[in-house]
Every structure is written in structure tokens, then in C-alpha cells.
Amino acid sequence: MTDLELNTPLAKAILDAAREMNESVKEQVENAQPGGVKAYVFGGAAVHIYTNVRGSADIDVEHDAAGMVDFSDVVVTYEDDSGSELLLAVDGTFNSTLGPLHEDYTDRAVELFVESSEPLWVYLVSAVDIAISKLDRFAEVDQNDIIALAKANRFTKPEFKRLAEEAINYHVGDSGKVSSQLKQILSKIK
User: Fold this and answer.
1) Which end of the chain lies in a sparser environment, N or C, as judged by fewer CB atoms within 10 Å?
2) Per-residue pLDDT, 173
3) What does the longest C-alpha to C-alpha distance in the chain come to?
């Protein structure tokens, strides 16, 4: 974890939110076992931790305790570098199945908040998998995120291309559109 951007105010707030999510698991799951719930951070929060190029007002989190645990009440207040007070909330509506995602993304995830005795273990989705997940919506912010992750050397262009093509093969959406957008973004990264 030493090469992650964890000392920014936003990154510290993300870690605080992970601790609050852990407390929520303790409250909501009777006899919760260590590591019994796993959560994966996507979106702008993940991009920030990898690159420190942008902020986010929410944390896109997927977890494996759907129906058992609700994180929608987790909100953290923090001060940014200019001293402004900001809110960071867990997005209770996030759904990773809406865009392309490689089936092995959990294998590449990086530990973010994993304490052996705690019931919630939080992982940061790998940079390449974050980039793949942004190929469907493909708004300007998504394209900028993919480019920022590539510029930060968080993945190689061949790795991104290979894993994205694999993910597109079983994506339930418009694979032609996503393939075209992959080709477009590959032309913009080195």
C-alpha cells in the first residue's frame, strides 16, 4: 500500500468511512466473523487513491452482504486542503454490473482496510479494473480517469487492452459501443 495516495484529506476520509462501514457491519450482522463481509471500492474515490488527480463526494462500494448490510447512512465529514468542510458518503445505489467488469477483478484488488479481527475487509479495485468499468458510461470524467490511471503507470496499455477485451466478451450491454470506446481511449494512452 505504500504506493497509494493515502495521506490526502480525501483518502483519510475514505479510510474513516471504511471504519464506519466496519462498525455498521458489527451493528447489522449478528456474530459477524472476521472478514465475513468484503467490500470493493470503485469510482472516483479509487481513482483519487491511485492518482490524487480528482476528488469525489461519494464512495462507490460493492459488497458481498447485499440484503444484510446497508451502508447508505455512512457519511464522513472532513476538511480539504483549503480548510473547507466537505461530506463524503457511501453510495447506496452503486451497482458494478451496469458496466463492463472483468470476472477476476476481486483477484487483483488491493487491501485498503483489512484488519484480521474485524468483520469488514475493504479492498481497492485494481486500477486496470477501474479503467475497464469506466468504458461503458464513457463520459469525459471517465475518459480523464482512464488517462490519469495510465499516466500514473497503474497499468500497461497491453494489459488494459487484453483485460478489457475479455470483459467486453461477456458484458451484457452494447459490446460494439464499448469496443469502439476502448479503441478510442487506447489511441489516447501510451
Assistant:
1) C
2) 80
3) 51
CA atoms within 13 A on the CB side of 81: 6
Strands 58-63 and 75-79 come out as: unpaired
Contact of 185 with 179, CB cutoff 8 Å: no
The CA distance from 35 to 84, in Å, is: 35
Which residue's C-alpha cell is 479495485?
Answer: 125
Amino acid letter, residue 173: G
- Per domain, the residue ranges of the chain are 9-186
Q: Provide the 3-class DSSP secondary structure of residue 35.
A: coil
CB 85 within 8 A of CB 10: no
3-state helix vs strand vs coil in the chain, percent to 5: 40, 15, 40
- Residues in the chain, pLDDT under 70: 1-2
Whole-structure pTM value: 0.94
